[in-house]
Design goal:
Strand content: 15-25%
Radius of gyration: 16 Å
Shape: globular
Largest sheet: 5 strands, parallel
């Protein structure tokens, strides 16, 4: 699809999604609901979250008002940085998808995989390493299937042959993505779309 496809889309996520606004990535005016430091629990609990462009808001209310035709979700990096049990993350993710589906009955929902990181990230964020992230992404893919959402594996666009975030796309923290990485991400989204359902 060409970029105009995103004109009636919304993106919900954390600081990785904020990057679309910060770097003025062309998404044909898509609604960017990016909130630094947020996980699925904040969406479920209707927490007030801060949009860099609009200020404090409740993400679900913004989305419900907009009724986008497609919604791209990317959440998890912030809540998974400690190693250990991630079942509550998956529980919140399921709940979040249920709430979003209710609020947006005519929206095609895309669950994006948690993005790859650089190997050195594990020393400061013990939960962020590729084997664990792959495991969690497999769970997210299963949840997406269960909830009739599409799953997008961003590793196909952003990871190198070792399954690490490509060095040329990585910010110094090894987690966030440089402006150069976003076109590859957008290109991946544009080539992995689901046929729009007609009611």
């Amino acid at each position: 699809v060409d970029l105009s496809y995103f004109s009636d889309a919304a993106f919900l996520g954390d600081s990785l999604t904020v990057g679309f606004s910060d770097y003025q990535i062309n998404l044909s005016g898509a609604l960017i609901c990016g909130y630094t430091g947020v996980g699925p629990d904040a969406i479920v609990n209707r927490a007030a979250v801060k949009s860099p462009t609009r200020g404090q808001e409740v993400a679900l209310d913004v989305l419900a008002a907009a009724q986008p035709k497609k919604l791209y979700i990317l959440l998890g990096t912030n809540v998974l940085n400690r190693d250990g049990d991630y079942s509550s993350f998956l529980t919140y993710y399921r709940l979040m998808l249920d709430m979003i589906s209710q609020a947006l009955p005519n929206t095609q929902i895309y669950v994006q995989s948690i993005t790859p990181v650089r190997p050195e990230v594990r020393s400061s964020h013990p939960g962020l390493y590729k084997e664990r992230l792959c495991e969690i992404n497999n769970e997210l893919a299963a949840i997406a299937l269960e909830k009739n959402c599409a799953f997008l594996n961003l590793w196909e666009a952003l990871a190198d042959d070792n399954g690490d975030l490509k060095a040329e796309y990585a910010q110094p923290d090894g987690i966030h993505i440089k402006p150069e990485g976003y076109p590859a991400w957008v290109e991946y989204l544009a080539t992995h779309t689901v046929g729009q359902q007609t009611a």
